[in-house]
Amino acid sequence: MDDQPGGVVIRFITEGQDVPSDEDIVQRECADKLRAFIALAEDLLAGLWRQILRHWPLDRS
């Protein structure tokens, strides 16, 4: 599925394949965006944790 300028959506369906509903497509796109957001949040938290450990060592002896 390609989004073309002007809001035209082109779908290629092969013979015998079920045509996904618009709701299914929206849910799949939302799930993909949510997974991408979660991956970004995990990366940011890992980076923050590395910065904390770098500037605040746990061994203070």
Automatic annotation (TrEMBL):
Q: What broad taxonomic lineage does this protein's source fall under?
A: Bacteria, Pseudomonadati, Pseudomonadota, Alphaproteobacteria, Caulobacterales
- Species whose genome carries this gene: Caulobacter vibrioides (strain NA1000 / CB15N)
- State what protein this is by name: Uncharacterized protein
